Amino acid sequence: MKKVLDIISVFSIAAMLFVGCKKDKPAPPPTPDGPKPTAGFTVARIDSVDFLSYQFTSTSTNYTDILWQFGDDSTSVEKAPKHRYAFDGLYHVVLTARNSQGYSAAREIILNVADPNFDRTKVGESYFATIGGTLTVSRDNGGGPTSNEGSLKVVDGDPNTKFFQSGFSGDLVMKFELKSAAVAGAYTMTSANDSPDRDPKSWVLQGSEDGIRWINLHSKNNEVFANRLQRIIYHFNNNVAYKFYRISIKANNGARDFQMAEWTVNKKQP
Fold first, then answer.
1. Strand ordering across the sheet containing 82-84
2. Can you name the CATH fold of 41-113?
3. Which of 238, 269, 231 is nearest to 119 (CA)?
4. Coil, strand or helix: which one is 202?
5. pTM over the 0.70 mark
6. With 0-12 CB in 10 A as exposed, 13-18 as middle and 19+ as buried, what is 30?
7. E strands of the chain, at which residues?
8. If pLDDT is split at 50, 70 and 90, which confidence band does 24 have?
9. Can you tell me whether residue 28 is helix, strand or coil?
């Protein structure tokens, strides 16, 4: 038995000596960095009529893949993509170029997508007048909707009349149901003849296809009507034909009462 143990000990010592004498393999030389990527691009409108369509072309170098972010939740990995925006506006466009070693570069711009023929001082037809429908409010004038200062005065097309609500508490909702759905892209509000502290100051405009699910279309905070009987036009982006439009008045200029001469919802341009 002792002889067997001696043999095992000899082999163990020999194995240890072999391992101890074995040379480590040299580490592979580091891969040298390749050229760093650069990011660049050009952008141009595709034609003079369709102001929403653009040609983007990458001038990036030393990359293996690129990613375009067009600022409207759309992306592309093509070198020279064409992209069409749904609406005018300012868009944050970013191009990122990466190489196989994980290095990246980016270029970004603010792209102004604008209709050269759009006139912000003009507005199209009022759907309340041309299509017609029914106005309802969350709380009316004490005399009712047809009274001298009832809610129907705010949609009668006459800026010299007004809707007056006493005891305003920031919860007034005016809703108009059109006889048929229409795509609106603007609305107007006209201040009444007196008491600027009763003017609307903050509000939200919404649209709905069924009168149940509402989509925010536009909002204002701390708006000021500088003059009496002043009409202000507000434009917004929309391509859905809504049958219901409503405006929720959140605040006025501090009075305990509210008044407004006119409210319209409109086609965006004449």
1. 41-45, 53-58, 82-84
2. Immunoglobulin-like (2.60.40)
3. 269
4. strand
5. yes
6. exposed
7. 41-45, 53-58, 65-69, 75-76, 82-84, 89-98, 104-113, 133-137, 163-165, 172-183, 186-190, 200-208, 215-220, 231-235, 241-252, 258-260, 262-266
8. low
9. coil
The token pair that represents 20 in the structure block: 């101890």
| Spatial CA neighbour of 45 closest among 103, 144, 112, 135 | 112
Map tokens 């005399």 to a residue. Answer: 143
Q: Which segment of 3-7, 217-221, 266-270 scores lowest on mean pLDDT?
A: 3-7
Give the pLDDT confidence of 150-209 residue by residue, as tens digits. Answer: 999 999 999 999 999 999 999 999 999 999 999 999 999 999 999 999 999 999 999 999
Residue 165: strand, helix, or coil: strand
Per-residue pLDDT, 10: 45
Residue 33 clears pLDDT 90, i.e. is over it:
no
The CATH superfamily assigned to 127-266 is Galactose-binding domain-like (2.60.120.260)
Whole-angstrom CA distances from 212 to 185, 244, 250 are 21, 9, 20
Shortest CA distance to 104 belongs to which of 32, 33, 38, 59? 38
Query: For the chain, where do the domains classified as CATH 2.60.40.10 start and end?
Result: 41-113
Alpha helices in the chain (DSSP H): 2-21, 127-130
Q: Which amino acid is at 84?
A: R
User: In which region does residue 261 sit, left (phi positive, over 0), alpha (psi from -120 to 50) or beta (all else)?
Assistant: alpha
> At 8, is the pLDDT very low, low, confident or very high (cuts 50, 70, 90)?
very low
